[in-house]
Amino acid sequence: MRLVRSINLSCFLALLSSFCLEFSHATDTIAPPSFIKDSDQTIISNGGEFKLGFFSPANSTYRYVGIWYAKVSESPVSPVIWVANRDKPLKTPSGILTISEDGNLVVLDGEKTILWSSNVTSSVSNMSARLLDTGNLVLQENTTGLITWESFQHPSNSWLPEMKLSTNATTGKNVQLTSWKSSSDPAFGTFSAEGNLLETYSINGKDWVVSWSSLTSECDVYGKCGAFGNCNPKKKVICSCLEGFEPKNIEEWNRGDWTSGCVRRTPLQCLKVSTGGKEDKKDGFLKVTMMKTPSLANWSSVFEDECRYRCLEDCSCMAYAYESGIGCMSWTRDLIDSQKFSSGGVDLYVRVAYSELGHKNEQGKVIVIVTVVIGIVFMAMCTLFLCRWMAKRRGGTCLGFHSEENLLDSKNQDKLQELPIFSLEELTSATNNFHLSNKLGQGGFGPVYKGKLLDGQEIAVKRLARTSGQGLEEFMNEVIVISKLQHRNLVRLLGGCVEGEEKLLVYEYMPNKSLDACLFDSIKQELLDWKKRFNIIEGIGRGLLYLHRDSRLRIIHRDLKASNILLDEELNPKISDFGMARIFGGNEDQANTKRVVGTYGYMAPEYAMAGRFSEKSDVFSFGVLLLEIVSGRKISHFYHNEQAASLLGFAWEMWNMDNLSTLADPKISKSGFEKEIFRCIHVGLLCVQDFAKDRPTISIVISMLKSEIVDLPHPRQPAFTANQITSENEFSYPCSMNDVTETMVHGR
């Protein structure tokens, strides 16, 4: 009886173990320490469409790791749609599929020798592999979900829905299908397929249906339009030359044979210099939108500005493109297989001679523009005097913006008239005659007052001081800029009034006042835990991205600082004070000024010293703000401290000492957030690097903060780490809404 019970118990345990083993692998994911062993262990996609495991082809004893249809048992073709170790089979059933220590998916034999690897160089240890219901096996980082490798980019002999044959952005190689050597040997065979002519298989029940897709258009034929040709299937004549180029053989071109391609109309300047020709103005780039990337691209991971700079400095570089998440692509050979898409694609920047950039009629345009401007100014002056004379006759009735708007062109007049007009009497009543008790702050522009309209709406009224160093130019600049913008992280302009010498702007009221009022107040600091601080950092970044890239205009703020960041009732940030903002034209990357305005410490070195500003100037200011928010210290905190030259110097010192926890504000709990806090400091140091070209764009900054870009470059020494600034010319008023400082520095 005991023997029988023992046997029954053993059988039960064996069955339970078998059930548990099978159940443990009824999943779609492999994550350490789990693995698949060559003993009929598999993983199944979530919907049960595909299986991943070890198999042997027909008439073979060799073992391979592959993916096959889970619901098809019999078919006229092999159900295996992907094979890992095609050229290195296992001779015995002793293999293991697992995640290695460096984060790669690997196939090992019985002696732990690697027979196959996903071979991702930037992998990390926190990885898992997942089989999707599309048949795609993906390797992804567990924390961010970022996919670093996928089987669809390394297909075998089968084509599946949602699979794309293209150029691998990382390796630069074409993704293509390759036949098996034979039905019993999945090694690389003789035939391959790429492009759009493909054999595909689909399933109805358990039956396989073979279907074919042909070229969608003639543009899908490789090199249809030749070198520097552009194929557009939407046009009657599908081939044309890229701008700056002309047909190499016009007779062939007219006959519809475009394979000879195009040649430059004007030789490149760098070629003239290298061959001893007369030096002319530098080459540049023409932007071609929604393009298919040409063949034979060179890939690198540098930032967009560096990508442009490298291509411009290399005479052999014919074009470049930059895509977030892919990186920098450049071409040193003739551009082949270019195609215009109706949507999507990349922005391709093609190198052309200076004369092809549209500068031929610049002088004539300047003359016309100057003439028009003089005429507008003359008419505006006449209209201004007429308006003031009429205002006096009407007894001082508020003219709203109408008395000053004529300093602008007619288009801007229409925009200004869209803003609500407040009467001076209405704003005087709302602020209790601009009573001192309603004063919120004082800046270079003038005082800011809290007010309440008759309908109960709370407002903030900015009043231009008569003694202000700023004047009508800044006043109208802010009106023009902010009236065209609408974003959740920008302060909203409600309207304004111009009456006599009074000039007022009306904004939405921010109950938590400005960031500096909370961040640098020993009591209010307690309200700003790390989640709120990170939300403020992200919000400022989103607002700046809107100004630089996403709005109808391209705007450089030029005075980004803690006192110009307002906080609503939920502590969401809103960028304010656009009096110093500058609107950039479509092809304008940077500008120079002899009138440098801003606040010491927040100004980028190229702006403070040479009057040169760009998007990277705002990125520098954002970096200073980021370090202030993380540390809870003002940029000016160290100016008179012998231990460190500035906050930037202190941050750099802590970075080199690998002691970033000392920099972080002790009032924020770091438990669970150390990695995020240190990453923010790292990004802040990248933003405040001395040279503008080394700083990332704001779009890259946001990707870094959100960990979409995993590996961050090592920062270089930031600007102003030495004690270069002896005093800070800045107004220091609590709860300031407009803390503008005008610093008269003449650029060289």
Based on CA atoms alone, the radius of gyration comes out at: 33 Å
What's the CATH H-level superfamily name of the largest domain?
Answer: Transferase(Phosphotransferase) domain 1
Biggest sheet: strands side by side, in what order?
18-17-25-21-26-23-24-22
How far apart, in Å, are the first and last alpha carbons?
A: 103 Å
**DSSP E strands, number:** 37
Helix fraction, binned, reads: 25-40%
Short descriptors:
Agglutinin, subunit A, 5-stranded antiparallel beta sheet, alpha+beta, globular, Phosphorylase Kinase, domain 1, 748 residues, 4 domains, 8-stranded mixed beta sheet, 25% helix
Description:
Helix 12 (615-631) runs antiparallel to helix 15 (674-687). A hairpin with a 2-residue loop joins strand 15 (198-204) and strand 16 (207-213). The model is unreliable at 1-7, 11-26, 196-203, 273-277, 393-412 and 722-748 (pLDDT under 50). This protein starts with a helix and ends in a 43-residue tail after the last helix. The chain is built from 16 helices and 37 strands. It has four domains: 24-213, Bulb-type lectin domain (Agglutinin, subunit A); 220-357, no CATH class; 363-508, Phosphorylase Kinase, domain 1 (2-Layer Sandwich); 515-705, Transferase(Phosphotransferase) domain 1 (Transferase(Phosphotransferase), domain 1). The protein has 748 residues and is α+β, with helices and mostly antiparallel strands. The chain has an eight-stranded mixed sheet, covered by helices on one side. A five-stranded antiparallel sheet has the order 27-28-29-31-30, with helices on both faces. The protein is globular, with a radius of gyration of 33 Å.
